[in-house]
Amino acid sequence: MLEVLRKLAKKKAHPPICSAVIVAAGSARRMEGIDKVLAPLGELPVLVHTIYSFQDCPRFDEIVVVTREDLLVEVSRICKDFQLDKVSKVVVGGRERTDSVLAGLREVRPDADLIAIHDGARPLAPQQVLEEVVERAAETGAAAPAIPVTDTVKRAREGLIEETVDRSELWTVQTPQVFEAGLIRAAVEKAAVDGESLTDECGAVERLGMKVSLTTGSKENIKITTPFDLILGEAILEARVRGEL
Ligand SMILES: Nc1ccn([C@@H]2O[C@H](COP(=O)(O)OP(=O)(O)OP(=O)(O)O)[C@@H](O)[C@H]2O)c(=O)n1
Ligand SMILES: C[C@](O)(CO)[C@H](O)COP(=O)(O)O
């Protein structure tokens, strides 16, 4: 089935229509009271950096932003004020990540060939990461950026090491994760029906028994998870201004 879709996509005269769903409807429990998607990073809110990455990337035709109900008006205003004209919809997410992804998928244009799911809390994804992951997904149907684990990894219980885990096959996976439109819709809908709580969308596709290709991630593509990540984000932006990154 996937093979057939792939061949059909290749036959299309146009480059794949690509939509991005940016999920920003979380409650930022690990941020010690900071509303991370609206927190300032450099001169701009985190979410504006995130949306700009996709606005600037010629591969993307449309952006759907998923937000919390209490931020709907503010996020819609921000998209207008910053002239983020690829944003076609701003919609309300749900309690679990999967609910938010589903809410976004429902608003994606029906003729999209590829859909990228990206964390609103990843504001600094380099263009090269976006380009490569879209290109690979167009070839294989599913791709995600990742970086190899470099620390030694231990499995521990109650503060005591039980074993050293072989890290040679371990990767930390990032977003955007890009999929053929039919595949990601089917995978996330099934995860929701099954009540699966997933931390990323590759997980939903893996559960269908499908393979996801890894592409080159970036250490700059941090996820703002704790307040310390805002300090890291500022340092990355400053290094970019100095031309060091
Ligand atoms: N129900 C949810 C949960 C998460 N997200 C989004 O998924 C991304 C990655 O999630 P995470 O970093 O865990 O964000 P939060 O869920 O907000 O953080 P926490 O787990 O600390 O509460 C974020 O952009 C977040 O807004 C979402 O849209 N809807
Ligand atoms: C999707 C993700 O960013 C990939 O690394 C990550 O799994 C999100 O995890 P979180 O627990 O919701 O922060």
Comma- or semicolon-separated keywords:
245 residues; alpha/beta; Spore Coat Polysaccharide Biosynthesis Protein SpsA, Chain A; 8 helices; 12 strands; 24% strand; globular; binds cytidine-5'-triphosphate; binds ligand LQXTBERG; 2-C-methyl-D-erythritol 4-phosphate cytidylyltransferase; nucleotidyltransferase
| Quaternary structure type | single chain
> How many domains make up the coordinates?
1
- CATH structural fold name: Spore Coat Polysaccharide Biosynthesis Protein SpsA, Chain A
Class, according to the CATH hierarchy?
A: Alpha Beta
* Rg over alpha carbons: 18 Å
Largest sheet: 8 strands, mixed
Strand content: 15-25%
Topology, number of strands: 12
The CATH superfamily turns out to be Spore Coat Polysaccharide Biosynthesis Protein SpsA, Chain A
What compounds are bound to the protein? cytidine-5'-triphosphate, ligand LQXTBERG
Please give the CATH architecture.
Alpha-Beta Complex
Low-confidence stretches: none
- Compute the average pLDDT: 95
Euclidean distance between termini CA atoms:
42 Å
> Order of SSEs, N→C?
HEEEHEHEHEHEEEEEHHEH
Count every helix, treating DSSP H or I runs of 4 or more residues as helices: 8
**Secondary-structure class:** alpha/beta
- Residue share in helix: 25-40%
